[in-house]
Design goal:
3-stranded antiparallel β-sheet; 268 residues; 11 helices; globular; 3 domains; alpha/beta; Arc Repressor Mutant, subunit A; D-Maltodextrin-Binding Protein, domain 2; 3-stranded parallel β-sheet
C-alpha cells in the first residue's frame, strides 16, 4: 500500500484532526459528519497497520507515528493552500482590485509606506482598504469580506483557517512626559513603576489584554487612571504628564524624536 493510494480527502481529514485533536471540531470545520472523519482515520490506520491517535481520559493524542505523518501532511496542505492563494491572487490582479483590512495602529503609523511601495510595484491594482480593530479585521477575514489583514497582535485564540506570517518587529516601551520625575533618569527600578498612574488602552483591545498578561508575569498590576481607545489620545495624555504608559515604539517614534515624550529604561 502506497501513501499516494490514499485520496486527498483522507490526507486533509487526518491533517485537520491532528491539528484540532478533536474529531467533532474537524467534522464541523469540514462540513462532514463525525462518523465520516472517524472512518477516514480508521481507513488510514488499517491500510498501513499503524495507530495514529490514542484516546485517554476522553482526550485525543497523536501517537509517534501520527506526529511523524502530520509533519508531511502539513507540508502538503500548506502547499495546496499556497496554490489556492496564488490562483485567487491571479484572479484579483485580473480584476485590478485587492481587499485588505488593517488594524487602527498599523493604519495610522505603518500602512501608508506599505501602500506606497505596493503602488510602485502594481500600478494598475486598486486597493480596497478597511481600517478597524484587530478583532474586526479577523472577523472580516473569517467571513471572506477581505482577502488579507495586517494586525499588531494575534488574538489569544487563533482561527486555523487563517494563515499567519510575521512581517514587522516592534517593541512595547514604557513612556512618560519630559516633565515626569522619571524623565531624566538613566534607569528606573521595576518596583518604582508599581506605584505610578498608568494611561492605557481600553480593556476590550487586544493590546490591553496582552499587556495585562505580560505585566502580571513581571508582578505589576497597573493603577489605571485613564483609559482611551486610541494611541493618539494616550500619547497626548502622557505628554501632558497625566501618567505613564506602555506603547508601540513605532507609534511613538515621532514624539520621541521631538522630545514630546520620553522612553523609560526599566531595570528587572
Amino acid at each position: 500500500m502506497k501513501l499516494l493510494d490514499l485520496s486527498l480527502r483522507h490526507i486533509i481529514i487526518f491533517n485537520s484532526v491532528a491539528e484540532t485533536l478533536n474529531m467533532c471540531k474537524s467534522a464541523e470545520y469540514m462540513f462532514i459528519t463525525q462518523s465520516a472523519v472517524s472512518q477516514a482515520i480508521s481507513n488510514i490506520e488499517s491500510k498501513f497497520s499503524v495507530r495514529l491517535f490514542l484516546r485517554q481520559n476522553r482526550k485525543l493524542y497523536l501517537t509517534k507515528e501520527g506526529r511523524e505523518l502530520y509533519k508531511y501532511t502539513k507540508k502538503a496542505t500548506d502547499i495546496l493552500n499556497d496554490a489556492q492563494l496564488y490562483l485567487e491572487n491571479i484572479k484579483n490582479l485580473e480584476t485590478d482590485k485587492i481587499s485588505i483590512g488593517v488594524s487602527t495602529t498599523i493604519g495610522n503609523y505603518i500602512f501608508s509606506q506599505i501602500m506606497a511601495d505596493f503602488k510602485k510595484e502594481c500600478l494598475n491594482v486598486e486597493m480596497d482598504l478597511f481600517i478597524g480593530s484587530s478583532m474586526d479585521v479577523i472577523s472580516r477575514l473569517k467571513s471572506s469580506q477581505i482577502e488579507m489583514g495586517l494586525i499588531e497582535w494575534l488574538p489569544l485564540k487563533t482561527n486555523k483557517s487563517i494563515k499567519i506570517k510575521k512581517i514587522i518587529e516592534d517593541k512595547l516601551i514604557f513612556v512618560c512626559s519630559p516633565q515626569h520625575k522619571f524623565a531624566h533618569r538613566k534607569y528606573v527600578n521595576l518596583d518604582e513603576i508599581k506605584g505610578e498612574s498608568f494611561i492605557m488602552m481600553d480593556k476590550n483591545s487586544i493590546t490591553r489584554q496582552r499587556l495585562n498578561i505580560k505585566l502580571k508575569k513581571i508582578g505589576i498590576e497597573p493603577i489605571v487612571s485613564y483609559e482611551f481607545n486610541n494611541f493618539e489620545a494616550i500619547k497626548n495624555a502622557v505628554s501632558c504628564n497625566l501618567g505613564i504608559s506602555i506603547l508601540s515604539e513605532i507609534a511613538v517614534r515621532n514624539e520621541l524624536y521631538n522630545n514630546m515624550i520620553k522612553k523609560l529604561n526599566i531595570r528587572g
